[in-house]
Design goal:
Length: 413
């Protein structure tokens, strides 16, 4: 453990926001941070206390269809997706989002650049930059952009989440983005032809955690993503309009896609004492994940954990462990800071470094036993008063992966 700790400290002394590697499906993960002064994009600023930006509304002169708000599924004539034989066709890129966020978060404004698709001709840019409010796309598909492309097969989509604003208790806060560059395999590919417009849907699965306090939050966002072709019967000219939205509820093809991208963590055999932590983590879904951290916190309603998939409203006063690639746990303590240490507490940058170094590849259908031996301190955060684990008291044990989270209650021994 001593040699592992030294190795981790050396690793954490490198550049603050760099690539997280090896996260499926197909992804490259350099990080993109944002400055403490905040960002301003399309009327949204981190200095404000309210959010006025809404999904882009587009002119409907050609179609007569209003695109604002969530609409019903687009109905067009059915045509099979076949390999284009030449010429050009229209490809639209859409996004949906099932996020994991702390209680009190009501919006996530993600700013992205370099939206591109990959085909036989290589990479083609669809949009230079854009913005989307992620919580508004839960069970909803929203068009990011469309482009005329050479007919053919497209197998990947790429974009960079450069920055984000989190609206928490009515106030906007700049979030730090970890793993912002997403290169995603389109499951089954998307076929562009001159006779039928085509679309690909990005299913981004972010986790937002508050590494500050409830009164002085600091948000960190990291994300995994999948991509799927949209059936041709679901695509029409209105789908091409930036900001167009339709509901995914009740659509059979979307249910099948969700099953493919399903990561489900099951926690069992959990034991906790003042000097040890032990648990088993199984992936009972159809998609694997990279396990990142374990958080142990008091079973206090103010922390916002209400069930198995809840995210703590703040991690202050918790014990935080990073999960290394060999499955071992390392408690997050101030000695691991690589940026200017705060007043006895952690920072966004130091947490991001831990996330960068962390990661156990848990494949679908497999399990891993995680354990830690040593004094456990509930001491995370700037203003936390360190305390130990008390026998007979109830705690939450939360395991976070790159696209999923799971919590379980345990009584300490």
């Amino acid at each position: 453990m001593a040699s592992g700790l030294v190795g981790l400290i050396i690793a954490l002394s490198l550049v603050a926001l760099i690539t997280v590697s090896g996260v499926p499906p197909v992804r490259q993960l350099p990080t993109s941070g944002v400055t403490s002064q905040g960002i301003t994009s399309q009327g949204v600023t981190s200095q404000g206390v309210s959010v006025e930006t809404t999904a882009s509304s587009a002119s409907t002169a050609q179609t007569g269809v209003t695109t604002g708000g969530t609409g019903s599924a687009v109905t067009t004539e059915t045509s099979s997706q076949s390999q284009g034989s030449g010429g050009q066709g229209v490809l639209s890129v859409l996004m949906t989002d099932p996020p994991h966020v702390p209680a009190g978060v009501t919006a996530i404004y993600a700013i992205y650049t370099g939206l591109a698709v990959h085909g036989t001709q290589g990479w083609t840019t669809v949009a230079e930059a854009g913005e989307i409010e992620l919580l508004g796309t839960v069970n909803v598909a929203q068009t990011l952009a469309s482009a005329n492309l050479p007919a053919g097969r497209y197998d990947q989509v790429s974009l960079e989440l450069t920055s984000a604003l989190v609206t928490y208790e009515g106030v906007n806060y700049t979030a730090t983005v970890q793993g912002g560059h997403l290169t995603i395999r389109i499951q089954g590919d998307t076929i562009v032809s001159a006779s039928q417009p085509a679309a690909a849907l990005i299913d981004v699965q972010p986790i937002v955690m508050n590494v500050g306090t409830e009164s002085n939050p600091q948000f960190v966002l990291w994300a995994e993503a999948w991509a799927f072709p949209v059936p041709s019967a679901q695509v029409s000219k209105t789908t091409q309009i930036e900001g167009y939205r339709f509901s995914l509820n009740g659509l059979g093809w979307w249910g099948n896609d969700v099953d493919i991208a399903n990561t489900a963590l099951t926690l069992s055999g959990v034991s906790l004492s003042s000097s040890s932590l032990s648990l088993s983590v199984a992936d009972t879904g159809t998609s694997g994940t990279w396990l990142k951290m374990v958080v142990v916190s008091e079973a206090n309603p103010t922390l916002g954990i209400t069930g198995e998939d809840s995210v703590p409203s703040a991690m202050i006063g918790a014990a935080v462990f990073v999960i290394l690639d060999n499955g071992s746990l390392l408690q997050f303590v101030p000695i691991l800071h690589i940026s200017t240490p705060m007043a006895g507490g952690e920072s966004q940058a130091s947490v991001l470094e831990a996330l960068r170094t962390a990661g156990y590849n848990l494949t679908a259908g497999s399990s891993v036993h995680l354990s830690y031996s040593g004094s456990i301190e509930l001491s995370f955060g700037i203003f936390a008063q360190p305390s130990g684990i008390n026998s007979g008291q109830t705690y939450w044990v939360t395991v976070a992966g790159d696209n999923t989270i799971s919590s379980i209650q345990v009584t300490a021994t």
